[in-house]
């Protein structure tokens, strides 16, 4: 495309390296998927470590897992799945150009994210009170002291990394809400909402794996 | 600068599109970002190289007389860290790749120019942390950070160094992400996948590894830092952890990282061989898919680093077999380059000298890699100088030769000017000789049983060590000469014209240096890569 023509017909939201809005949208969407592939491997190292140690020390992991507050984890799962619903509705509202609905769904998503983090913080505090934070002050009754500590090390790092991603997600959603408010996002330009949604759903799915692995597996095995 | 030279360069190009410091530090032009990377990786190359100088000086005599054992540990650690993460990994992708990917596909820029600039800043930030660790006293764990030494025992700056590498990893990830999206979505009309230069296939394969392997290193180093800082247990046997798990996670990244280093170089060599034999690369699709195959199989061989660390017989057998398999696509490439040269009109210009050097040295490095994939032999030479020699043949003989070859080939495009061909050929020869003199004796040393990472050794090894140190000093001179004449050419070199090698490829159809937007108008591609056929027929006629 000759430079002059391009300058004339180039929408403001279209970066100079792209020919049209559709190419830009496809590129940013693919970019987010590639980033999520990176994220899967980022969490993947932790999941691999978890699977190895869980296979080696099942009794210790079950015993330690019973110490977690299962109602809090269950509530949080429901909260996160609901936030994915509101996120999906936000993307739909963006695609259909319903600006007010988009803004309220984004705010609901953020509110649910905050509820999740609040419950998580409560859980961390409870574990802290029971001396379940690994390190010199770690306490655990029973013969599985060492390997229970391993479980809690993994628990805190896996859920901690997940919570960090939630916080980043809340930041992203705040920017999105601001952009909607300022009119940057229009019914012709809503790619950022879509890719933020991809990210949010990804963080949700990570929890869908974390919850059964950490809270549920083997919990009801009697022995 | 003479008036004639100014007149000969295109009046409007990316180098004179703004002169201030801000026009460089805030640029989003992939070509300028490539030059920012070029300056930075060169800086780290010479830092890493200075540690190599001290190592070879120490090893010139059998007793540990130049530096203490602690200092020596820090020297080889910092040499490895600087060279691996701050030179070899970003070298070709972030400089030549950044410069060439958009040019070769006929795009105005990469898909995400701001992210591209951000990746450079992330790289610099990671570099600053690592430099801080260096001036604060260095780190002595080896570049591999093996636990429990790195988490429990070492008293040196493990955390700042690990943080530096962690941060730098994200610049790799962003570069890889950018290239994948750029190659998928930004190709000019008619530029189909199988019309792409093979350099782009290797960049694509490299980017896959960037994106999928680097995060595993990031999380592994985070676990090391958390274990060290907060005494959480992951790898420490005292809390039930397993140090070998660290090795698995570390090599899940670091073995594919070897292919991050060598795949781009292979891509460069494909370009050079075609251009200087004036023939299409033999078996284009085989070479293209070999890049992808190396990237994929390369993810499945990491266990060969743990043959002696405690691994079941069966997994060792499988990792051994997979390690043999990764040699197949590598060998396909070597055969295809050789077949390309066969009956080609070969011209012996500097880039071609590097390409031929690469093919020979990479073959030696690759074949000795097969020795190491064989379990029985590997047990014998594990942690000896044989390993050191093997991976330097791949990383220096392979990656660095390809990097220098590519730099010489595209220098006229990057700078718009020609360098002194005589000095360039001379230094290519010096580097080839110096390299072999440095590292070939190390194969013998290792086979005789000299272990790596010791600052003293028995007197019977001195002869070979002196040869190696002598070679290193020749190699060092070989690296300084290109620095001098390339800098010289920036100011005094004659203007190159848009296509000094008479090569094909979109990057040669635009002016040298290219304008900021790369092409006057978006090219429409109706030809395959390496259409040198007509010229060959002309010669025959």
Can you describe what's shown?
The complex is a heterodimer of chains A (about 220) and B (about 550). Chain A is mainly α. Chain A contains 7 helices and no strands. Chain A has helices at about 5-10, 20-55, 60-65, 70-95, 100-130, 145-180, 190-215. The model of chain A is unreliable at about 1-5 (pLDDT under 50). With about 550 residues, chain B is mostly helical. In chain B, about 70% of the residues lie in helices and about 0% in strands. In chain B, helix 15 packs antiparallel against helix 16 (about 460-490). Chain B is globular and about 65 Å long. In chain B, about 55% of the residues are buried.
Features:
heterodimer; A: 223 residues; mainly alpha; 0% strand; disordered N terminus; B: 541 residues
Give the N-terminus to C-terminus distance of chain A in angstroms: 73 Å
Supply the helix-strand structural class of chain A: mainly alpha
Taking the sheet with the most strands of chain B, its summary is: none
Number of helices of chain B: 17
Uncertain runs of chain A: 1-6
State the secondary-structure class of chain B. Answer: mainly alpha
Helices and strands of chain A, in order, run as: HHHHHHH
Counting H and I runs of at least 4 residues, what is the number of helices of chain A? 7
| Multimeric organization | heterodimer
